[in-house]
Amino acid sequence: MGGCGTSGKSNEDLSEELDKYDVVHSKAEMQDGDFIYRLVSEQEEYADGQSVTLYAELEYIGEQSEVTIEHAASPFYFPMEEKIRGFEIPYPMPEPLVMTTLKKGEALRVSYTGSGAYSEDDEKAYVEFMKDFIKNGFPTGYYTVDGFADFWVQKNDHKNEPDRYHIEAQVDFKVK
Prior knowledge:
Layout: H1 11-18, E1 27-32, E2 35-41, E3 45-46, E4 54-60, E5 66-71, E6 76-77, E7 80-82, E8 87-89, E9 98-103, E10 108-111, H2 124-136, E11 141-153, E12 163-175
Parallel strand pairs: 3-12
Antiparallel strand pairs: 1-2, 2-4, 4-10, 5-9, 6-11, 7-8, 7-11, 11-12
């Protein structure tokens, strides 16, 4: 996976570009049936070098006291893009079948702990960006996170296909 975009920008150029962007939503909440998905950046703006706090929650609000969901290693995905450079930051996910029981009214929360991938075939600026991102965290930039929860719920009769949920939300934040 790779990205293309503006390469060779100085920190001054990045700061000027960054001022053109406004953070729209640092928190988002979407409901699908008996589930509420939340995606949250704890701040709209972080200082360069500061740890970015980003997390997702899934809450069951249905009639049962609990429900078991099936998902990959996590039900949460955090793919994002640094908009000034136009670089995508992928969120690869191991895909074992994991089951998690959600109790009604108690949110499952998972924090973003990092991601990213690149190939030596990607453009040089992207490879340098990703190496820095993976090693040091978020460099100066404007980030949008197109997060989602992806999971299945077995039907009570177990004869039919399970119900699949794919709930999306977007948040954004700046690193200056």
